[in-house]
Specification:
It contains 1 helix and no strands. It is mainly alpha-helical.
Length: 63
Amino acid sequence: NLNAPGASYVPLAFADSPHLPRPGEKPGASAPNRFYMYGVIGRLAMLAASYELEATDPQAEAA
């Protein structure tokens, strides 16, 4: 739990900024965006949660 006493926040250990490619370099020459996979996993989790909520909705209309 991050609210616990003694919890600390540290930056992720990426060498360069992971947000944008370096200007002026050829495509694919700069380091990849390492946060992309976190976004993919987050979107899949939201999709799975939406299916689960839809399947367990007690007020859903029976078709």
